[in-house]
Design a protein that fits this description.
Layout: H1 3-14, H2 18-35, E1 47-51, H3 60-70, E2 77-81, H4 83-92, H5 97-106, H6 109-114, H7 124-132, E3 138-140, E4 151-153, H8 156-166, E5 182-188, E6 194-197, H9 202-209, E7 214-216, E8 219-221, E9 224-228, H10 237-243, E10 247-254, H11 266-288, E11 291-296, H12 308-321, H13 323-326, H14 333-345, E12 357-359, H15 364-374, H16 384-395, E13 400-410, E14 413-422, E15 429-438, E16 445-455, E17 463-470, E18 473-483, E19 490-507, E20 510-529, E21 534-552, E22 559-561, E23 564-573, E24 584-594, E25 604-617, E26 621-631, E27 643-645, E28 659-661, E29 663-677, E30 683-698, E31 709-719, E32 722-731, E33 736-742
């Protein structure tokens, strides 16, 4: 309708006031039009962050998150596998990139990945086992056959770290209730298919997704068994799509071109096959991602867990390289603050005080004993560090593969839930070890030994220990350890043994003969364990003790005696490691009285004591000192029944047993410096060592040096099979030796 026709319409309709009506209407129209609301802007796309698995290389994900946060790109979903699942889970739980970086940088990864309970946390009996078998080899005799653990590492230490971080979310319904909805992928070992964790225990989900087969023991949940998700979906873009993501930012860890030289070993070939398998399941995911960030981590390895500070910036770098693509999804400051407020509103930090303790899966006396350890935390604010210390001490008994904790609701109250898991390959348990020691091509000593330990045969806390060995020291023996009262520290320990030892006899540095010493007998001790470090015993034995010439020129008279032997032994095992301690003290002292003397009348006494102390120097150095001494209290001409010096780490420039007498002392002082870290799965570190030894023997053969001493240098490796050492020593009077060994050093 044009303006003239509108005027005629208004005159006909409204008469003489038509023009006034028309003008008012004309003025109102634009006002009404302006009052209509503006159209809503289109909603922003839902963005998911997908993080690949890759061991320590996954620390680069933290750098990507750091860049994304700094540039105000809201993340609506997180999905990850293996280390990507760990970093993603921490981010989804509300931790910012700085908190995550501090967390991973503060973890003692060598300790965590070694799978070993720290030496100070072991029970006294397990400490004794480690002194004899200073390695990580443990097997089981469950069902009467030798069984292997299902991983080099039970994953207990990793599990405790995750339990602590996930504890505030103990009662969430599913992972969509996290500050950022989260998923992670594991491999269902029973079906071979991928399993996507979307609810349940957050800690258990993260622990499952990074259970590398053969390294970490798989996670059991009901009838299901889960391992690392890298085998089935190492870059779970499809999982993020299923969550509802419109845009997927996937972070791929680029290790660079394949190096053919790595195929020169069995481990290299096996590792390459795993890489090919994982790469195959990632190809489609890489194509399906909207933005693919390839972080250059080619200068690092998946085992570089101590290099998080160097790997994290690689994530920042790759994000910056893709800044144009990523910034399309950035929001303004106001929208970012609103997003952060909403995310933080779902973050949990407050924990309720537990009103009871629930021990899952245990029954009878064992359940009661565990519950008694945790009742101290009832009706008190939760202290995760103290709870973890209690768990570690329980694991130090040697029968649990892992112990996790959480909170639980029952009868409208909140309690502390503790989940102990017994080792599935024992008891009984078997320790085994090989021992090599030489500083003379004509005196290479090699031995194999094993120990089987049976638990609870004669009541709670009892242990039957059976030993066997071949080599320079060969024989069998057994001891039954039984507490006199349940839960008390007094014990009785009857034993029997049959042991033969080969010993050499020297004139100067020339070996003239080799003897076999036989020490067979039975007896019993009465003792008291003060704590997990200290024990005192007194006992009585009846022995068949003697020595016979095996080869060479007869130097001393063979003997055979059948004495009663009274003994008192004190041990304080206060060092922090059995292979290469960094701090702490060890004290061992033994007094014995024999009712008969070799080739003489009457009885004789001996006392032998060793004290070692270790002091850390900065982050890589260790100063150590060792003082040992023994006396026969004036008894002479004991021959091989006396004390000897010589051999690796016991006056290294002298032959083994070259210095023989009735009394002795030995002092050693030195310094160890850590050169490199080894892969924590198979070892720990390599050290350079320098030390000075000085000793003295009283009542020795003619020509025995007055004050023998030497200076030595060595390389020491802490490994899965025990400490390996090798070096050279230069001593007084022209003595010099090279030496090599596998077995206990300190």
């Amino acid at each position: 309708m044009n303006f003239s026709r509108m005027v005629r319409f208004c005159k006909t309709r409204f008469g003489p006031h038509a023009l006034s009506v028309l003008l008012v209407a004309w003025m109102i129209v634009p006002v009404v039009t302006q009052a209509q609301p503006a159209a809503e802007p289109p909603p922003r796309p839902r963005v998911a962050l997908v993080l690949e698995g890759g061991g320590a290389l996954g620390f680069a994900h933290i750098g990507v998150i750091e860049w994304i946060e700094a540039h105000h790109i809201p993340i609506d979903y997180v999905a990850g596998t293996s280390m990507g699942g760990l970093v993603g889970g921490l981010y989804a739980s509300g931790m910012n990139p700085q908190e995550i970086a501090t967390f991973v940088g503060g973890v003692n990864w060598n300790s965590v990945l070694s799978g070993q309970i720290p030496f100070p946390a072991l029970s006294f009996r397990r400490k004794e086992d480690k002194l004899v078998f200073p390695n990580r080899l443990e097997f089981g005799l469950k069902h009467g056959r030798l069984s292997l653990p299902n991983g080099l590492n039970s994953g207990s230490a990793v599990g405790l770290l995750l339990d602590e971080k996930a504890l505030p979310y103990w009662d969430m319904k599913d992972f969509d209730d996290l500050p950022i909805p989260f998923r992670c992928v594991a491999t269902d070992m029973t079906t071979g298919q991928e399993h996507v964790f979307k609810d349940g225990s957050l800690a258990q989900a993260m622990r499952s997704t990074m259970s590398i087969p053969g390294v970490f023991a798989p996670v059991e949940h009901g009838t299901q068994v889960y391992s690392d998700g890298g085998a089935v979906n190492n870059l779970p873009v499809n999982v993020a799509r299923a969550m509802g993501a419109d845009i997927v930012i996937a972070v791929y860890l680029d290790t660079g071109p394949f190096d053919k030289a790595t195929l020169n070993s069995l481990v290299g070939v096996a590792g390459r096959n795993v890489e090919i398998m994982i790469a195959a399941n990632e190809l489609n995911s890489m194509k399906e991602a909207n933005i693919l960030l390839k972080a250059d981590v080619s200068k690092f390895t998946s085992g570089d867990f101590e290099k998080s500070a160097e790997i994290i910036p690689k994530g920042v770098e790759v994000a910056q390289q893709h800044s144009t693509e990523l910034e399309k999804y950035a929001v303004n400051d106001a929208d970012w603050q609103a997003y952060v407020r909403d995310r933080n509103s779902r973050r949990r930090t407050i924990l309720p005080e537990p009103k009871f303790v629930d021990i899952y899966g245990m029954h009878g006396v064992q359940q009661t004993e565990i519950a008694n350890e945790f009742t101290q935390y009832v009706n008190k604010p939760i202290d995760t560090q103290k709870i973890e210390n209690t768990i570690t001490d329980l694991q130090g008994t040697g029968i649990y593969s892992s112990i996790s904790y959480n909170l639980i609701d029952k009868d409208k109250e909140t309690g502390l839930l503790v989940r102990p898991r017994l080792k599935n390959y024992g008891p009984p348990f078997v320790n085994m070890g090989a021992f090599i020691s030489t500083n003379n091509v004509n005196d290479i000593q090699f031995g194999l030994a094993g120990r089987a330990t049976f638990f609870g045969l004669t009541g709670p806390g009892s242990e039957l220990r059976l030993d066997a060995s071949i080599g320079q020291v060969a024989g069998v023996g057994g001891e039954l350890y039984k507490p006199l009262f349940v839960g008390k520290r007094y014990f009785v320990a009857p034993r029997a043994y049959y042991v033969h030892t080969l010993s050499s006899f020297f004139s100067g540095s020339q070996q003239l003969a080799q003897y076999t010493a036989n020490r067979n007998g039975f007896g019993a001790d009465l003792g008291y364990q003060f704590n997990s470090k200290t024990e005192l015993r007194v006992g009585e034995d009846y022995q068949w003790y003697g020595e016979t010439l095996k080869v060479g020129t007869p130097i001393e008279q063979a003997f055979h005696i059948q004495p009663f032997v009274s003994n008192a032994r004190f041990q304080y095992l206060g060092q922090d490691s059995v292979q290469v301690p960094t701090r702490g003290t060890l004290v061992q002292t033994l007094y014995t009285y024999y009712t008969q003397t070799p080739n003489a009348t009457g009885g004789y006494s001996q006392w032998d004591t060793t004290i070692e102390h270790f002091i850390p120097i900065k982050s890589r150095g260790i100063i150590f000192g060792n003082a040992s001494g023994g006396t026969s209290f004036g008894t002479e001409n004991l021959g091989l029944a006396g004390f000897s010096l010589g051999g690796p780490l016991r006056l290294s420039a002298y032959n083994r047993g070259e210095l023989l007498g009735n009394d002795y002392f030995l002092a050693v002082g030195g310094y160890l410096h850590q050169l490199i870290r080894l892969n924590p799965v198979i070892g720990d570190a390599m050290y350079a060592a320098g030390f000075y030894e000085i000793g003295k023997v009283w009542g020795g053969a003619p020509g025995t040096p007055t004050l023998p001493n030497d200076v030595s240098g060595a390389i020491v490796l802490k490994t899965l099979i025990g400490p390996i050492f090798g070096g050279a020593s230069v001593g007084d009077s022209g003595h010099h030796k090279w030496f090599f060994g596998l077995g206990r050093i300190f």
